Amino acid sequence: MAPDSEPTPTAAGHRPVPHLPRRLADPTPVVLTGTALWLVGTVALALSGNLGIEFWTCVAGVTLGVIGYGVFRWQRSAARRGSRGAWQGLSGLDD
């Protein structure tokens, strides 16, 4: 491997982060798909009458997926508004 092929370190000694295409860097489809799968599991278990630990695990998965997606959207909107405490630099998704 030629020395020219590696990214040059920044002033702080860190290598620059390569930018992924938007469709690969955007976590929205993954979060929504995961939450939907937990919801399918919840409905299937509820319809089968199995309200044991598996059902409540699926309910927790749906709940955490909804909360996580809400926090994600909240942070992204804060970054777009330019809020001082917002997370910046999510691989170019802050447009």
Description:
With 95 residues, the protein is an all-alpha fold. The chain is built from 3 helices and no strands. It has helices spanning 22-25, 28-48, 53-81. Helix 2 (28-48) runs antiparallel to helix 3 (53-81). It is elongated.
Features:
95 residues; mainly alpha; elongated
List the topology elements.
Elements: H1 22-25, H2 28-48, H3 53-81
Helix pairs in contact: 2-3
Brief digest:
The protein is mainly alpha-helical. It contains 3 helices and no strands.
Rounded radius of gyration (Å)? 20 Å
Low-confidence parts lasting 5 or more residues at pLDDT below 50?
Answer: none
Mean pLDDT: 79
Count of helix runs: 3
Distance between the termini: 35 Å
Judged by helices, strands and strand pairing, the structural class is mainly alpha
User: What form results from the Cα inertia axes?
Assistant: elongated
Biggest sheet: strands, sense, closure? Answer: none
Question: What is the string of helix and strand elements?
Answer: HHH
Beta-strand percentage? under 5%
Helical coverage, percent range: 55-70%
Beta strand count: 0
